[in-house]
Amino acid sequence: MTQNRPRVLAIAEAANPEWVSVPLVGWSLAHALREVADVHLVTQIRNKEAVLRAGYVEDDDVSFIDSEAFARPFFHLAEKLRMGQGKGWTMVQAINALAYPHFERMVWARFGADIQAGKWDIVHRITPLSPTISSPIAPKIAKASVPFVLGPLNGGVPWPKEFDAERRAEREYLSYVRSAYKLLPGRARTLTAASVVLAGSHHTASEVPAKFADKLIYLPENAIDPTRFNRVSQPETGMLRAAFVGRLVPYKGADMLLAAAEPFLEAGTLELDIIGDGPQMQHLRAMVGTSKAVTFHGWQAHEDVQAILSEAHVFAFPSIREFGGGVVLEAMALGVPPLIVDYAGPGELVTPEVGIKLPIGPRAAIIKSLREALRDVIKKPERLAHMATAARAKVDRDFTWSAKARQVSKVYDWLQTGGEKPSLL
To answer: Which residues in 286-378 belong to E strands, given as ranges?
Structure first.
């Protein structure tokens, strides 16, 4: 171990460099933390092949926990109860909350003695990201007088009241009673035992009881890998080109974008790339008809998205429910200013210097605002140049994984040396 670098046991049940969403976040943060600490990763065995392909050495760099015998039946149960592929995420998290504690108990069986013996300066649970999933080993870690870092936690952003139909379309019936998790005794024990709670969003921070404010630190969980998003947007001059990236489901808002863009597509002043697939594809194609101004690219590999996105002048993404909004950061990293709805994750990432924010409201109001914003940038495209430069600078400063590791290292330093609680952003 290197002197003066904290020894960190990083628990990330989901951590996979070859997947997307939470597993990629778990992997990316745990891996980046190796720049500032001596990190040993503990993850689920399903990630083994990908992690070893990334160059990790088992037992030296990483340990794998085989909880499949317990986790697999819960996974299959969640798939049945979610009532559709890609739907019912609140149900999935509820089932995960039942299955996950077994994983942590296996972690304790393997590492508990070392934690109690002081082998680790800090234990940091990176995933699950969901604030609804407690940590059964947090009190044991606290009893061993080892600081326990939880998070970043994020999730459960309320559905806007104007989009209840979209909520039901996503089979999010359990979300109506989601707040019941706050009453579970495991939550209070976890928050009490934690030394630091990293909140990935202001909403998640607002759900943490005030008595834990002294250990609460805001840190969005998403960042970008510069090796994956390394182009600089250089769209052709002339007609404005906009791009959308995401699942083609109602709450992502691709249909609202097409409705708002219709007069400009017909007039030949706007071209639109839609990257993604999903149940709305047929409906969206019907909205477009025979127009050549819209290109449906379908699903694209994560590493290939930037090739299309970097040709756009603006990233049009009117989603009304995003926890983190990692795709917004990816667009910003390329120098493509985002045009988003000011709600949840994207609303926290985008400022007037780097993009355009539209007020949340009913569907018709969002379409109207979106149409006005598109009309404005078509008339004054020069305003995007400053935003593009500022967006890339913001990501480079605060939202690469290396930057994230430096931010977390301030938390580690605070835990070890004391002083004033750090503000990371």
So the answer is: 294-298, 314-317, 338-341, 356-358
